[in-house]
Write a structure and sequence with these properties.
Elements lengths: L7 H7 L38 E3 L7 E3 L9 E6 L10 E11 L5 E4 L7 E4 L7 H7 L7 E8 L8 E14 L6 E3 L8 E4 L5 E4 L10 E8 L9 E10 L5 E4 L8 E3 L9 H6 L8 E6 L19 E11 L1
Antiparallel strand pairs: 1-2, 3-7, 4-5, 4-6, 4-8, 7-8, 9-12, 10-11, 12-16, 13-14, 13-15, 13-17, 16-17
Length: about 325
C-alpha cells in the first residue's frame, strides 16, 4: 500500500516517505518554468525569518512579503497563536497551507479556497521533522510561518521554501475499531483479534468468491464513509489460496494508513468500492477477486490472479 498524507507539491516536501493516493489537481501545480536555479547566500536579499511579513487574517489566504531571493536556515515561528487546544504528538492535524518560493517570492501552491484542508499525522516518521517541530504544541487556530530548505519539485535545485500554515483542527485517532460485533456469513474467512486488536485471518479450504464480498465484523457508531472522504485505517491482507499474510499496517511505525479521496483513491478497486458506505469505528472484512485487486500480473510478491482477503479498521473519515 502507498501512504498519502498531504496532496500535491506540499507532499513532495513535507512528507518523509510516501506518495499521493489522490488525483493531484494539475491546475494548482506550477509549470516547470516556475522554479529557478539555486541562489547562494551572498546573492540573497533576505536572510532570515525576521525578513518575512505575513499579512491577513488567520483562515484566509495570507499575503507573504519579502525581498527575493531569500536564503535562510530552517526555522519556524508562530505568527498568531490560536485559542484552541495545543496540538499533540500522534494526532491528525487539519490545516490550510501556502507554499512560496524563496527564490522568486511567488506562490507555488496553496490549498486555500479548496473544499478540503490538508491533513497530516503528527508523526515525525511520516512528515518532515521541521513541520512536526513547528506544529507540535501550537494551539488550534494558530498561524505558523515555516522555512524549509528543499526542492519544490523533483529535479529542481533546493531553495528556501516559505510555508504559512493555518492549523484548523486536530484530533486523536483511535487505535482500533470499536462498536458492535456482527456475526459473519458462513463460508467466509474467520478472524480472531489479539488484545491490541490486531487481526489474524484463517481462510477456508473452499473456492474463492468471484465477486467482491464486504462483511462488517464490527459495526462502528461513527459517520458514514462517503465517496471523496479521506480515511485513516489499519489493515491486514492475506492470500485466499494459502492464508499467507502479504501486508499489514499493524506492528509498523506508523501503524495507520491514510487513503485520500476514497471511491477514486489510488488503492485497489475492492477498497474503493467496499469501504464507501461503512461507518467510522467499523472493522470490515473484504474478499477481493483479482478483477478488483491486482489483476493477472504479479505485484510485490502477490501472484497474479490472486484473490485477496483484507481486514480493515476504519478509524477516521474526513470530508
Amino acid at each position: 500500500m502507498r501512504r498519502s498524507v498531504i496532496a500535491g507539491l506540499l507532499a513532495a516536501v513535507l512528507v518523509v516517505s510516501g506518495c499521493s493516493n489522490g488525483n493531484d489537481d494539475a491546475s494548482s501545480s506550477p509549470s516547470p518554468s516556475t522554479g529557478s536555479s539555486a541562489v547562494s547566500a551572498k546573492d540573497a536579499k533576505s536572510h532570515g525569518i525576521g525578513d518575512i511579513t505575513v499579512a491577513g487574517k488567520s483562515g484566509k489566504e495570507p499575503t507573504v512579503d519579502f525581498k527575493a531571493p531569500l536564503v535562510a536556515k530552517d526555522s519556524s515561528k508562530i505568527v498568531h497563536r490560536g485559542k484552541g487546544k495545543p496540538v499533540k504528538k500522534g494526532q491528525l492535524v487539519s490545516a490550510n497551507m501556502t507554499m512560496v518560493s524563496g527564490n522568486t517570492g511567488k506562490t507555488l501552491q496553496s490549498n486555500y479556497g479548496l473544499k478540503k484542508s490538508a491533513q497530516f499525522p503528527m508523526d515525525s516518521k511520516q512528515i518532515s521533522p521541521a513541520l512536526f517541530k513547528a506544529v507540535k504544541g501550537a494551539n488550534i487556530g494558530s498561524r505558523i510561518l515555516l522555512l524549509l530548505n528543499a526542492s519544490a519539485q523533483q529535479g529542481q535545485p533546493q531553495q528556501t521554501l516559505v510555508y504559512v500554515i493555518d492549523v484548523t483542527g486536530a484530533k486523536t485517532i483511535p487505535t482500533r475499531a470499536k462498536g458492535t460485533s456482527v456475526p459473519p456469513k458462513k463460508g467466509l474467512p474467520k478472524v480472531k483479534l489479539a488484545k491490541d486488536g490486531k487481526p489474524s485471518i484463517s481462510v477456508p479450504k473452499s473456492k474463492a468468491p468471484t465477486k467482491l464480498t464486504v462483511q462488517p465484523l464490527i459495526k462502528g457508531k461513527g459517520k458514514v464513509v462517503k465517496a471523496g472522504d479521506n480515511l485513516t485505517v489499519k489493515y491486514t491482507g492475506v492470500l485466499w489460496k494459502n492464508g499467507k499474510e502479504f501486508d499489514s499496517s499493524w506492528g509498523k511505525s506508523p501503524s495507520t494508513y491514510t487513503v485520500q479521496n476514497i471511491g477514486q483513491a489510488r488503492v485497489i478497486k475492492g477498497w474503493n468500492k467496499g469501504l464507501v458506505g461503512q461507518t467510522v469505528g467499523s472493522q470490515v472484512l473484504l474478499v477481493v477477486p483479482p478483477s478488483m485487486g491486482y489483476g493477472k500480473d504479479d505485484n510485490n510478491g502477490i501472484p497474479g490472479g490472486s484473490t485477496l482477503v483484507f481486514v480493515v479498521d476504519i478509524l477516521s473519515a474526513d470530508s
